[in-house]
């Protein structure tokens, strides 16, 4: 046990699914990306089908397409594509499953609703994805049982609060906009490369034409994704909402009875960080709070 006073969390939230403020803020801050994607889908549909009602149908189908992420097989496929994951081996599952079941018993949730994975990473990490996916790294499997249970309880907290589902939906709905950004930025690189060659060997008029074309492409990129204009303002707010989500997952794990174990795990991480103070910009854009702040909140019962 680490030194300090431990204030236990209430057990009333066990097994209860409640969307918290961090999810609401994530949805609000993700609206520009969603609208940008909707514009892209509408433009592409308009190029393929000139009929107006067909374009609206395609856009409506795309809006409803987010429901496919709720399908277990689709979620598993997306998890494999987004992360380097694999099913646990028999030996790994024999260690992981009993610990996960203990966490779910403490949380009063059905452990069979979730799928366990192992991430192909040597880092100490675990994460929740979608509505059912929970993964740990190979190094995390080397932790003592109670420490690993505490980390699993934290990830279950993300699931119960809706963090992982909201993140997957945000990723899904930003795909068209991200694809458009990739196409336009690739075109801009080509145009700029041509412009560089023209400026050396071509005429001034040709160089001016290339510069104007670059500005047109840039304007098109901003029109397709106004998120780019809002990013300097919204990125710190989005990072803040994610930090609130981490605090919420910590508090949920503490409510399941893993508070002291989670403090022990975080204390080990804090010692490994060598107390290096991060610059203000890094802290503002960090998706995870400072480890010392997480420990302080857990000890205070917040």
UniProtKB/TrEMBL annotation:
Q: Which molecular function GO terms apply here?
A: metal ion binding; metalloendopeptidase activity
Is the keyword Coiled coil in the record?
A: no
Q: Where in the cell is it found?
A: Cell membrane
| Gene3D superfamilies in alphabetical order | Metalloproteases ('zincins'), catalytic domain (3.30.2010.10)
Membrane topology listed for this record = Multi-pass membrane protein
Q: Where are the transmembrane segments?
A: 23-49, 55-78, 204-234
Q: Per the entry, which co-factors are needed? A: Zn(2+)
UniProt cofactor note? Binds 1 zinc ion per subunit.
Could you tell me which residue ranges the Peptidase M48 domain spans?
A: 102-300
Question: Could you tell me which PANTHER family the record lists for this protein?
Answer: PROTEASE HTPX
What protein family does this chain belong to?
Belongs to the peptidase M48 family.
Name of the protein this chain belongs to: Peptidase M48
| Taxonomic source organism | Actinokineospora globicatena
